[in-house]
Design goal:
The complex is a heterodimer. Chain A is an alpha/beta fold. Chain A is built from eleven helices and 15 strands. Chain B has eleven helices and two strands; from the N terminus they run ααααααααααββα. By secondary structure, chain B is mainly α. In chain B, 71% of the residues lie in helices and 8% in strands. The chains are: A alpha/beta, B mainly alpha. The structure holds adenosine-5'-triphosphate and magnesium ion.
Chain lengths: 307, 322
């Protein structure tokens, strides 16, 4: 596929209109670029338009404006050939409650021209092999998520779209989903995973797009995004808290009191903080670099856009 | 057969509603057989005795009448009196129930409405259940073309309605045959099956059309309750009220067209008034009978089904699936 991204959108817009003529702008001019291969996190707070975007990618919702290219096919004309290589879960897993999990997958498999053996294989892959014959209605939330993920794998997709897949999963389940996403990416597939809980995708995502109120606010490699957004934060424990704070503020850094520690923002490095303290005759018991996380970056960005 | 259709047939076969409706139809079939008991059963000794007595009574009465008649004729030779009076044959004094052919024909006629109704319910719920469970979303990932989604679901509902109807008719026919045979009545009269097969064929067409209407309504409205609302509205406004208010519009009712299609013709009367030049205030009115032919009935039903199906396709193609 070369450099063609797995997903590419430009100027994507969607306004929902209800019968009462109330309008909700869900997506406004979204430019999304998901490189082929790897796990791409699609982040945004509740109501940011993630699910709506995914629905537009899958042809379920008709965009008001904008272009979409999916696996090299321009939509809507190329929807059918593109979706042949896509597996997706949109919002919650939806299956027929009175059919077994396996039967639900069988129906999709028959429609997709996939042999029954593949159904058992994907059930096994998500750890549902023993429960496939139970009715879907009797599944726990976590089992439903697993079944939905199994459904996406039926056709050996190049692109797997998971909309908040860890919703309702226990820690072991979250771990399993992460492993699964990683292994799919390692097989050369592209995984688009939407989430508002950052901690869970931060560890697994290679690249990320952050949307707020239906528009892109940041994108790139997770590592770059973390580096670019935050100066170094250093935690210091000293005896002379007030003196130390005064010294460090004089240097132009921001200092907060946090329990017995001082939290210093804006210093170029931990060594610089140490040097300033020593120069004033203050010696630190403890000096540690606080690793910035995506959560902080995300909250920053979200707040910026909101204000 | 497309893969989508194969999957839809598999699903409709697995649905509880499908089997529930077949179960109800079989209850109806059993009802037709059970109510034919009075036609089929052997006559009781009391009935035979009563019939014999009535016959003997008549024979006696008639013999008296003949005597009186002859006496009258002799007195008035100019009168042309026919005194050759005879009692009806004794067999006519015993109501021996309708024949197998008659009972079968009327039972098969009576199955038309239940068969069409069951096909409609199966088809509507087949599609609304999909929207209700929101399984339409994952389905669209596998079958992205909306027209194909509608076509495969409609075809599945239509195809599935046929074996159900055939089984119901077969159970009814076999039940009646068994009943008549058990009662020692003839079931083999020539020409029994020809008209029945014709009726069943026309009913199958009706059943398929009902399935098409059902999926069309469901795709257009998405909720079973909305479909039910529209159906109730149609029955009240069009089937019941319209013929009363505007008798000339009777040919748009489903009941009239279906009955025309099934029986070959349906009639309705419209009062036609022409001004009477002699009495300008009170026009001269008379009831004029109109006929809806079988072909016209079928045509009207097909047009209705096509219009509803197209509405379903258009709405489903245009509306977002969320
Ligand atoms: N079917 C719909 N009709 C009307 N408005 C809708 C519909 N679906 C979503 N919206 C609105 O569109 C906006 C975006 O919703 P969307 O579900 O795409 O957000 P999201 O990013 O997926 O949120 P979450 O993280 O809560 O899942 C919201 O304001 C929502 O209320
Ligand atoms: Mg969502």
């Amino acid at each position: 596929m070369g450099d063609e991204p797995a997903i590419w959108t430009r100027g994507l817009r969607k306004t929902y209109r209800s019968f009462t003529m109330r309008e909700v702008v869900a997506v406004q001019g979204l430019d999304l670029r998901v490189p082929a291969g790897g796990v791409h996190a699609f982040l945004g707070p509740n109501g940011a338009g993630k699910t709506t975007t995914i629905r537009m990618l899958l042809g379920m919702v008709r965009p008001d404006a904008g272009e979409i290219r999916l696996l090299g096919h321009a939509l809507p004309q190329g929807l059918e050939p593109a979706l042949r290589h896509v597996g997706a879960v949109v919002e919650q897993p939806t299956f027929y409650p009175h059919f077994s999990g396996r039967e639900n997958l069988m129906l999709l498999a028959v429609a997709a021209g996939v042999p029954a053996s593949k159904v058992d294989a994907v059930l096994d892959q998500v750890g549902l092999a023993g429960r496939g014959r139970d009715r879907f209605r009797k599944y726990s939330l976590g089992m439903r998520q697993r079944l939905a993920i199994a459904a996406t794998l039926l056709r050996d997709p190049q692109l797997v779209i998971l909309d908040e897949p860890t919703n309702g999963l226990d820690p072991a389940g979250i771990h399993d989903v992460r492993e699964l996403m990683r292994s799919l990416a390692d097989q050369g597939r592209t995984v688009l995973v939407s989430s508002h809980a950052l901690a869970e995708v931060e560890q697994v995502a290679d690249t990320v797009s952050i949307v707020v109120r239906g528009a892109l606010v940041a994108e790139g490699r997770v590592a770059d995004l973390l580096g670019e957004r935050s100066g170094t934060t250093v935690r210091v424990r000293v005896d002379e808290t007030d003196d130390a704070a005064a010294v460090l503020r004089r240097t132009g850094w921001t200092v907060r009191d946090d329990a017995n520690h001082l939290v210093v923002d804006g210093a170029p490095s931990a060594a610089e903080v140490n040097r300033s303290l020593v120069a004033s005759g203050i010696y630190a018991h403890e000096l540690s670099l606080v690793r910035p996380d995506l959560e902080a970056v995300f909250l920053d960005l979200t707040r910026e856009v909101a204000s | 057969m497309t893969r989508a259709l194969r999957a839809e047939l598999r699903r409709i076969r697995l649905r509880t509603v499908t089997w529930l409706m077949l179960g109800l139809l079989l209850v109806v079939a059993a009802g037709f057989v059970a109510t034919s008991w009075d036609d089929a059963r052997p006559r009781t000794a009391a009935e035979l005795a009563a019939a014999h007595e009535a016959y003997e009574d008549d024979v006696r009465t008639i013999a008296d009448m003949v005597v009186q008649c002859r006496a009258l004729r002799e007195k008035n030779p100019d009168f042309d009196l026919d005194c050759d009076l005879k009692a009806n044959p004794e067999s006519s004094y015993l109501w021996s129930g309708r024949s197998f052919a008659d009972v079968l024909a009327s039972a098969v006629d009576g199955l038309a409405a239940p068969l069409a109704g069951a096909a409609l319910v199966v088809a509507v719920s087949f599609v609304t259940a999909e929207f209700g469970a929101r399984t339409i979303a994952p389905w669209l990932v596998v079958v992205p073309r909306r027209t194909r989604v509608v076509l495969s679901k409609t075809s599945a509902a239509a195809i599935a309605s046929v074996p159900g109807a055939v089984v119901t008719v077969a159970v009814t026919a076999l039940g009646l045959m068994a009943l008549y045979a058990a009662c020692g009545r003839s079931v083999g009269a020539a020409g029994v099956w020809g008209p029945v097969v014709g009726t069943v064929g026309r009913e199958l067409v009706l059943v398929v059309l009902a399935a098409v209407v059902g999926t069309g309504l469901a795709f257009a409205l998405r909720h079973a309750t909305a479909v039910l609302g529209v159906l109730v509205w149609w029955v009240i406004a069009v089937e019941v009220t319209l013929p009363v208010v505007l008798p000339g519009w009777v040919p748009v009712t489903v009941a009239t067209n279906a009955s025309a299609w099934l029986t070959g013709r349906a009639t309705y009367t419209v009062e036609q008034c022409t001004p009477d030049p002699a009495q300008p205030t009170t026009p001269w009115c008379q009831d004029v009978e109109h006929v809806v032919g079988g072909g016209q009935g079928l045509m009207a039903l097909v047009v209705l089904a096509v219009v509803v199906a197209l509405a379903g396709v258009l709405v489903f193609k245009r509306r977002d699936v969320t």
